[in-house]
Write a structure and sequence with these properties.
InterPro entries: FA_desaturase_dom. This is Fatty acid desaturase family protein. This protein has about 280 residues and is an all-alpha fold. It is about 65% helix and about 0% strand.
């Protein structure tokens, strides 16, 4: 099949629609104010693309390489993380080394053994992401070559957009890419920070809030993801059910705003709906 898993039509549709909106605003926005408003709103929306980009690099959406490169180009322009960077920095780097802070590409520990605060971690990991990805790529020349190609193509596209309309390029593409690169680093801090252990069942935090996992495609089942990082995101809840008794309770965390609030609201609506059906 062209799309390897039918359920991936969901993230693919979201990514393509966001890219289409970006182009629509970039080329046809009637005022700088509307562009600014869209740019501000789009940063939050594109934050979910970061999760989709992550999942794609673990389990590609398409069976054809050219199609994967196209969707990665779109996601790169939305998140600041181009194709193969997740593969090198995250899959072939962090996932291999997350239990060893002296090697972890997303390491949260300082040289003196103390835990970085979230600001220091965000700046450190965000600023070095591409350098670390290229460094890991020395062991994987094919992936490194693709990363370099993707960087060049993305920078070329940004240069073209800036030449056409520098203001729209800045607001629609450049600033969201920079912000979300660091926002991704910021978000990963809560997955592992402070967990210095060799036990994979105690090396990650998990979020089982259904709303959070719906929006992030099950990113909250993080222990399961690390145990089998090649498993498709839709299969993580089933894996979590098999291993959840081995995860101590203190390694579960609440989802941040607005996910718990949405979950409570939808639960109340569901209960009210059932009550009305009984009547």
């Amino acid at each position: 099949m062209f799309v390897r898993k039918k359920i991936d039509y969901y993230p693919i549709t979201i990514i393509v629609l966001i890219f289409a909106l970006d182009l629509l605003v970039f080329f046809f926005s009637p005022s700088w104010l509307l562009t600014l408003f869209y740019g501000f709103i789009s940063i939050y929306i594109k934050g979910f693309t970061c999760s989709l980009n992550h999942h794609h690099q673990h389990y590609k959406f398409f069976s054809k390489q050219w199609a994967n490169r196209v969707i990665e180009f779109m996601m790169g322009l939305q998140t600041g993380i181009v194709g193969e960077l997740w593969v090198l920095h995250h899959t072939l780097g962090h996932h291999q080394n997350y239990l060893d802070q002296s090697k972890d590409e997303s390491g949260w520990k300082k040289d003196n053994g103390e835990t970085m605060n979230v600001v220091e971690y965000t700046i450190n990991v965000g600023s070095t992401a591409y350098a670390r990805g290229l460094r890991v790529g020395k062991k994987y020349p094919r992936e490194q070559k693709r990363l370099i190609q993707n960087i060049i193509v993305t920078l070329g596209a940004i240069a073209l957009f800036a030449w056409i309309n520098w203001y729209n390029a800045l607001i629609v593409f450049i600033l969201p890419m920079l912000i979300l690169l660091y926002a991704t680093a910021f978000d990963t801090y809560k997955h592992h920070a402070g967990l210095d252990t060799n036990d994979p069942y105690q090396a990650t935090y998990n979020v089982i809030d259904p709303t959070y996992n719906w929006f992030t495609c099950n990113l909250g089942y993080h222990t399961a993801h690390h145990l089998q990082y090649g498993k498709h995101w839709a299969e993580l809840p089933q894996l979590h059910e098999k291993i959840k008794d081995q995860i101590p309770q203190e390694f579960y965390r609440e989802a941040g705003f607005p996910f718990p609030q949405i979950t409570k609201l939808t639960t109340k609506i569901s209960l009210l709906s059932k009550s009305w059906e009984r009547c």
